[in-house]
Amino acid sequence: MATAAANGAQIWTDTHVKKISHKNSNEGGYYKIHIHEAGPDATLKSKLVIVAAGTMGTNNILMNSQGNDKEALDLSKNIGQHFSANGDVIGFGFTKERRLNGGGPGLDNLNNHNRVGAVVESIIDHRNGDNIYDHIAAVDACIPSAVSAPITGSIRGVKNFTARLKADANAILKIFINNDGKEEIPEDDLAGFDKFFTFLVLNHDQSKGKLTKGPEKGYAKPEFPEYGQQPEDRNFIDKSNELMTKIMEAMGGKFIPGGPNSSVHPLGGVRMSADHNRGGCDLSGRVYKSKDGKTNPGLFVCDASVMPMSTGIHPFLTISALAEKISEQIINSDEFKQILNS
Fold first, then answer.
1. What's the pTM value of the predicted model, to 2 decimals?
2. Torsion angle of C-alpha atoms 63, 321, 142, 223, degrees rounded to 10
3. DSSP β-ladder status, 89-94 and 196-202
4. Pairing of strands 295-301, 49-51
5. What is the DSSP secondary structure assignment for residue 107, as one 8-state letter?
6. What is the DSSP letter of 143?
């Protein structure tokens, strides 16, 4: 942001893009970006639009931009399809005695014994063999103080620090664990954050999820009707839980599986593909129209939405590389050159 501003970009904060429409005029066509601010709604105009609102935001903007209105965008029927949870499996563990420091205690309670370091410190990497669906990688996932506080806002009034740590861990477990009420976790078995551990295991899923349109000032809604039930998905979930169980047993603790539909790496929905029948944008990030393989001139997507499948590992560097490539394509595009010459 600072680099963009230093090079002349205007930046609006606290602004939500609701949708994009297209207007034809005597001067040629242009896009209208409909935004919602703290004050009245407004509209920006541009001949080139780059959508980079993250997987859930970008898909929602594009889906809300479709419709029967004469200015609605003509977009690929594949928008929202091929959504991936990146094969993420979340799990938790706790010990009775051994200090794990799985959550940030906050600056007021920080000491040399409870410093937690980065969110992810290490990795167990089992990405071996030719079949990517057999690959698996596990990382630790410390809960930062800034995240744990909003999650457990209801227990902020607890003055006793030990009690607060225990309540924090309990609250997070209730949010993530999906046991349909069949299994109660005894309060006495729950440790506080100092003896609490969060896992994130990354695999490859089948990218068979779907995103549906959310409210204009919201995000797309994921649908995984069979996620975790298909044999391929069940395989990586079972392997993930087995690996996390072994790790916790080695630390003298107990493993608690998380819900099957949790992900911190949502990908896809505007799948990049050279074939318009199989994706939502071309290899340059231009968004396809609904038929004939044509693209919408000057309309690009440049974020995790274009990912064609799961990465099986943290997707940050892959997304960054694609963003660099798409940016290069945009700079060399006819649309960009026309704007420079206008």
1. 0.83
2. 20
3. antiparallel
4. parallel
5. G
6. B
Whole-angstrom Cα distance, residue 105 to residue 83?
Answer: 35
The DSSP bridge partners found for residue 49 are 299
Structure tokens at 255: 């493993």
Give the chain's count of helices (H) and strands (E). 7, 15
| 119-123, 169-173, 192-196: range with lowest mean pLDDT | 169-173
Phi, psi of 210, deg, nearest 5: -140, 145
Edge-to-edge, what's the strand order for the sheet holding 295-301? Answer: 49-51, 295-301, 286-288
Q: What share of the chain is helix, strand, coil (3-state, %, to 5)?
A: 30, 25, 50
Residues paired with residue 30 on neighbouring β-strands, in sequence order: 23
Q: What is the DSSP letter of 272?
A: B
Q: How far apart, in whole angstroms, are the C-alpha atoms of residue 42 and residue 173?
A: 42
Rg, C-alpha atoms of the chain: 23
Q: What is the pLDDT of residues 202-211, one digit of tens each?
A: 999 888 889 9
In the three-class reduction of DSSP (H, G, I as helix; E, B as strand; rest coil), residue 201 is classed as strand
